[in-house]
Amino acid sequence: MHTPAAIAQLAAGILGSDWKAERSPWEVRGSVTAPETDEFTLHVDDLHHLVLEAALAGEIARFTGHPAQSNGEDLARKVAEAIRHYLSTLEDDETQGTALYQELNRGAHFSGADYSDPETPCHPSVTIAGGTCSFYIDEARVAQVVVELDWLTASGARIWPGAVPVRITLDGGVVFSSTGTWVVELQHPEDGGDDSVWEYEIAAEDAPTEADARTVAAKQLLADLKSRDNADAWNGITIRSVRLADHSPTA
Fold first, then answer.
1. Which residues make beta-bridge pairs with 245?
2. If you write DSSP's letter for every residue of 53-64 in order, what string do you get?
3. 113 near 136, Cβ under 8 Å?
4. What's the Rg (C-alpha) of the chain?
5. Cα–chain-centroid distance for residue 94?
6. Mean per-residue pLDDT for 172-201?
């Protein structure tokens, strides 16, 4: 008997060694996964059709005929082909990142404030991929922003296999970022024009705030000046601007 779980197992073998299959109780559902990609689930609908779903996109293929009455290997090959087609379409159109963030954000869950139990007050929050952000006014009239990332779902864990990149913007300016590059421009007040600008690029993971980036740049400048014979000529140099770029630091 070819259950959805059995077909998922066969499809995983066709897709390659990086893929694995998981079975639900009674094998009524089967899932196929691989590192850094979506999770695909197989189940039989009310019409006895085998349905293939992607965790982030929903249904992507439907195969008519009850799987128990079909050739299991042929059906598994069709499932594998459908998964490959889905992934290749995302890659070919260069829309994988766009599709990913849109699906995650569309699935956002909003919760209102609930203070019925003083022991466990619930502040207004939004949950995306298992991560929750709360924004509220506390009793001291301070605007609080609290982010909890410990409860990321399985899809979130695959999207961010390591640390989750976080960026906080306040009134249009980035005040914290764990990803990207701070570009710090320095210039002597007596010099003019862009030709006299001294620039440092500092990884945000090493300096998550602008203040941190300024401190790192100042230390780097001091070390560079000590290595120069005409260091006195650079007395008075100041930071002209600091901005955050999305690219990695250039070598």
1. 181
2. EETTTEEEEEE-
3. yes
4. 26
5. 16
6. 80
